Automatic annotation (TrEMBL):
Domain of life per record: Eukaryota
Subcellular location(s) of the protein: Secreted, Cell wall
Domain (Expansin-like CBD): residue spans on this chain: 228-315
PROSITE patterns for the chain: EXPANSIN_CBD, EXPANSIN_EG45
Positions of the Expansin-like EG45 domain: 109-215
Protein name as annotated: Uncharacterized protein
KW Membrane (keyword) present: no
Region (Disordered): 36-86
């Protein structure tokens, strides 16, 4: 009798476990829950996938079903001529989430902090990246060419996407969880939906230089910033496209001239950098941006003394 009870319990447990696994596999999106990406980014362990419509995804069976604890090496840094420092393509897998012709998250943002990625210059050609691509936020803004060859609907023509979000549950060592727009862009003409119905596909990718014609590096002062706390989102960097360090220079109160002293800002989350101070910070502010290749760019007094939260301040400089 005891053995029979044990068998029933064991069988029941297996059924429950199988059901849970099926739900996870069928869930779709492997990206972070976008409305709480600050908390998710700071969490010591990855949170479970969201079940709301913003990340329920149409990626098909298997999207977000496996986690690789051993990190893959990061792909090569982009070179100035727009090609990967390695001439070959690397293998990856791709899924998609959100609306079929959307930009991914329902707020058109993501765990990098970028705003309105459905609009130019991002134009919904965006992707969540797993850790070798997202790089704990320092991969935000990186540009990659992707192409697919294996599926009959694949065009084989490279398309460029930008990392704007975090992928916590990869299905491969390199995993692009693309917007519906970006996933469909890899298809032959009039076969976008056919390719999206595939759910998970094998792709190839390589790092390329970002190009934002006509744009300069811009700085969005985040909501919640105040005289003692300045949080800045850095956007639209040509070349590497990413940011590994931001430094701030204040100005003198008496004549608004730069102090000549650079103070390092701290990465808050994604591509947002902050400065905390026990005294009011004195603008105008100059910002020095360093990218992954070690190149620096200085935007002199780009944020005025009378700055306001939720405003964008464009510089007159750009990476080569």
């Amino acid at each position: 009798m005891a053995a029979a009870v044990f068998f029933k319990v064991s069988l029941s447990s297996r059924v429950v476990a199988a059901a849970l696994l099926w739900l996870l596999v069928a869930h779709g999106s492997s990206c972070a829950k976008h409305k709480s990406h600050k908390a998710a980014h700071a969490a010591p362990t990855p949170p479970p996938p969201s079940s709301d419509s913003s990340s329920s995804g149409s990626g098909g069976p298997g999207s977000g079903g496996y986690y690789y604890p051993t990190p893959s090496p990061p792909p090569p840094t982009s070179s100035s001529n727009g090609s990967s420092s390695s001439s070959g393509w690397l293998n990856a897998r791709a899924t998609w989430y959100g609306a079929p012709n959307g930009a991914g998250p329902d707020d058109n943002g993501g765990a990098c902090g970028f705003k309105g990625v459905n609009l130019p210059p991002f134009s919904a050609m965006t992707s969540c990246g797993n850790e070798p691509l997202f790089k704990d936020g320092k991969g935000c803004g990186s540009c990659y060419q992707i192409r697919c060859l294996a599926h009959p609907a694949c065009s084989g023509i490279p398309e460029t996407v930008i990392i704007t979000d975090m992928n916590y549950y990869p299905v491969a060592p390199y995993h692009f969880d693309l917007s519906g727009t970006a996933f469909g862009a890899m298809a032959k003409d009039e076969r976008n939906d056919e390719l999206r119905h595939a759910g998970i596909i094998d792709i190839q990718f390589k790092r390329v230089a970002c190009q934002y014609p006509g744009l300069t590096v811009s700085f969005h002062v985040e909501r919640g910033s105040n005289p003692n706390y300045l949080a800045v989102l850095v956007e639209h960097e040509n070349g590497d496209g990413d940011v590994v360090q931001v430094d701030l220079m204040e100005s003198r109160a008496e004549d608004a001239s730069p102090t000549g002293v650079w103070e390092p800002m701290r990465e808050s989350w994604g591509s947002i950098w902050r400065m905390d101070s026990r005294r009011p910070l004195q603008g105008p502010f100059s910002l020095r941006v360093t990218n992954e290749s070690g190149k620096t760019l200085v935007a002199d007094q780009v944020i005025p003394a009378d700055w306001q939260p939720d405003n964008v301040y464009s510089s007159i400089v750009q990476f080569d």
